[in-house]
Amino acid sequence: MVGSRRLQCPNIRIYLTACRCAPRRIPGVALPKGHLPRIGNPIFSYWLGKIGDAQIGPIYLGFTGTLSLIFGFTAIFIIGFNMLASVDWNIIQFVKNFFWLALEPPAPKYGLSIPPLSEGGWWLMAGFFLTMSILLWWVRTYKRAEALGMSQHLSWAFAAAIFFYLSLGFIRPIMMGSWAEAVPFGIFPHLDWTLFDFPVGSESRPDMSAEIPLRIRELTGVDSFFVAGLRARVLPLGLVYRGSSAARDAR
């Protein structure tokens, strides 16, 4: 019983008891022979039931899903510890500057060679593990749809996003002959790459080290303001550098 209310009339008393029906747990569609079992016991969420299916679990990962999570957590581990090392292993500074920390790609002098770990090698390793994680998860989505007799629309839509990821981090740097043209791992640093490196190249990137670490970025079609006086116009294909405020006023 969740709760009760009592309505009093002169000669009648009516008790209304609130109750909630608990549906039976659904284990999911039967899996073909040779497949790994689903993991976890189903649970129900009252608030999820307000907008959709209230049952959570069980979850099927399978061989490719398990490998994808292992590779993905390895990539996050490499990126996170390199960011932590960049602030001298200071947890407070790590949390404070998290949005501005990055794992940068190798310098242009290394080209497409394998650099030392401290000069871009960790970036290559993190990129390898992250790419393998994404590709293995794509295989999982394709195989799950195939095993359950569903179409692969989701898989091919996901493949389009993967192609975009590979174009910026793998195909384009190889065609330009340098890993330095790839995207760094970091929240604001990868946005800076979109603003400067993509239109003008990595060697023409302005020095942002003296900039106050505060940026307010808006959605597509509006202005993005920088504390240092830089401004950009957000376009569907990325951020295009428009110069400093002084240069714009002189036009």
Walk me through what this model shows.
- Pfam families: Photo_RC (PF00124).
- 43% of the residues lie in helices and 14% in strands.
- The chain has helices at residues 46-51, 62-86, 91-96, 121-147, 153-176, 187-200, 245-249, and strands spanning 3-8, 13-18, 43-44, 55-56, 215-216, 223-226, 230-235, 238-244.
- The strands form three sheets. The protein has a four-stranded antiparallel beta sheet.
- β1 and β2 (13-18) form a beta hairpin.
- α2 runs antiparallel to α4 and α4 runs antiparallel to α5.
- The longest helix has 27 residues, at 121-147.
- The chain is extended.
* Largest beta-sheet details: 4 strands, antiparallel
Rg for CA atoms? 26 Å
Distance between the termini: 73 Å
State the strand order across the main sheet: 5-6-7-8
Helix/sheet category:
alpha+beta
Low-confidence stretches: 207-245
Summarize the helix and strand pattern as letters: EEEHEHHHHHEEEEH
CATH level 4 superfamily of the largest domain: Photosystem II protein D1-like
Q: CATH class of the largest domain, please?
A: Mainly Alpha
Kindly report the CATH topology of the largest domain: Photosynthetic Reaction Center, subunit M, domain 1
Number of H/I helices: 7
Q: How much strand content do the residues show?
A: 5-15%
The geometry reads as extended
CATH architecture classification name of the largest domain: Up-down Bundle
